[in-house]
Write a structure and sequence with these properties.
- This protein is an alpha+beta fold.
- 24% of the residues lie in helices and 35% in strands.
- It has one helix and two strands.
Length: 62
Amino acid sequence: MATCERARVDLISLDADGACWRVSAVPKYGKGVAALADAVAVAIAERGIALGRRGPGSPRDP
């Protein structure tokens, strides 16, 4: 679990290719940065959010 202070999520850009987000926080403990990155990766995966662009010939809807 990530324990951080001053957590913030900013939408950097949004276009037809997708959204670009910045996630930042101040970790309370030494390994907080890695835990925050892990927590974000797990949350994205659990919600089925695809990362990156679809390749040529990829279906529009999974």
